[in-house]
Write a structure and sequence with these properties.
Length: about 375
């Protein structure tokens, strides 16, 4: 379920640039202190000071990595991963736990990143790269801090053989890339795969149902069950997916089925509908974890390791790509100059999207504030 956040609105001709400047404001320890005080008013003054210094330091380090422009694609991958790593440290420090200062959270990194990759013989890239997590290191500590029940998915140690690997909860790099909503238009062309994220919206069926409920027959037959769900539409956008597959993904949308032709408008493509259960007076979209950016409509991500958090998804993807850059030179050569050059195109697109989308995600999770930034000529900008 979406957490309740305050909303910050502002207008800018350069929306991406304005969000970037908003992130840079967090390099101020005094501004970080105000954020921590607002979100956690019960801490002591010395704890606010200690945490705000650590938080601003981590953000300053993240921006230093992020602004690295020299070098090629491999340099960008490494710098973006370390930028996200620092943002995740800053998020831990900004918690209400007085023990979470820079020194404490950095200690977890001494035990490693908390993630591992393993190459599967006989499979083609990126299907041959499997990613898992272990009970120790930074990722494990971070996931627990933000509320992911990571213990049930984490291995005791990095698998030493195929049997241990098969028994662990791993995903292929392909599985993870398929979950990034902004990459949906590229997946079929470049990877030949359907997405594991889906655009959703308010289903037309709700209007029909509302009309039936308000009729004399509907009012006479109404039951408490009628008011506890709303229909959500799931748009496949050309992906070859079935209702059975969608129901197997453990989304917050239940009882998914293909919408009947009689409910489709004349020019609409086939789509699916499912039920979102919620309290009678709540809005249905407050009970579905969604992601939206300038590159995708409102979307749901198929859960991995018990989360649908896009920031965590990017952290794991960038970790994996950084391992390929550093430790798999033959694969990286093929991506840059050889038979895998189509992956190069995918990664160029991914990093361009990343640089546009991630600053907003970072600000929102660090400040617990929803940013609404519009251009002056937008319908949503003030008159």
């Amino acid at each position: 379920m979406s957490s309740q956040k305050t909303i910050e609105r502002f207008v800018a001709a350069d929306v991406s640039g304005a969000i970037w400047l908003r992130l840079k404001r967090l390099t101020s320890s005094q501004l970080c202190k105000k954020i921590i005080q607002k979100n956690h008013p019960s801490l002591q003054e010395d704890e606010y000071v200690n945490k705000s210094i650590g938080m601003s330091s981590a953000i300053r380090s993240a921006i230093g990595y992020w602004e690295t422009e020299n070098g090629g694609l491999n340099s960008k991958i490494l710098s973006r991963y370390y930028a996200l790593l620092q943002i995740s440290l800053a998020e831990q420090i900004s918690s209400g736990d007085p023990k979470d200062d820079l020194k404490a959270v950095q200690k977890h990194t001494e035990s490693g990143h908390g993630l591992f990759t393993q190459t599967i013989e006989g499979a083609t890239f990126p299907d041959n790269i499997k990613i898992g997590c272990v009970r120790g290191g930074h990722f494990y500590a971070y996931a627990k801090k933000i509320g992911i029940e990571i213990k049930k998915y984490a291995a005791e140690r990095r698998p030493r053989n195929n049997e241990e690997l098969e028994a662990s909860n791993t995903y292929t790099l392909t599985d993870l890339l398929r979950r990034i909503p902004e990459l949906r238009p590229l997946l079929k062309e470049i990877l030949g795969e359907n997405p594991l994220s889906f655009q959703i919206g308010h289903a037309t069926r709700n209007t029909i149902l509302k009309s039936k409920r308000s009729s004399p027959q509907g009012l006479a037959q109404s039951t408490p069950e009628i008011s506890v769900f709303t229909y959500a539409a799931i748009y496949p956008k050309g992906a070859k997916i079935t209702a059975e597959e969608l129901n197997s993904y453990n989304l917050e949308i239940k009882d998914i089925e293909k919408e009947s032709e009689e409910n489709l408008s004349k020019h609409s493509e086939p789509y699916f509908v499912g039920k979102v259960y919620h309290p009678d007076n709540d809005l249905w979209w407050d009970h579905v974890v969604t992601h939206k950016s300038g590159y995708c409509g409102t979307s749901v991500i198929v859960p991995f390791w018990g989360t649908q958090d896009p920031f965590v998804l990017h952290l794991v993807v960038l970790y994996t790509l950084s391992i390929i850059v550093r430790y798999l030179p033959e694969t990286w050569y093929e991506i840059e100059h050889g038979r895998l050059d189509y992956i190069n195109s995918l990664l160029e697109n991914y990093l361009a999207i990343f640089d546009s989308v991630l600053p907003k995600l970072a600000v929102e999770r660090l400040t617990k504030t929803h940013l609404v930034v519009t251009s002056p000529d937008s319908m949503n900008s003030p008159i």
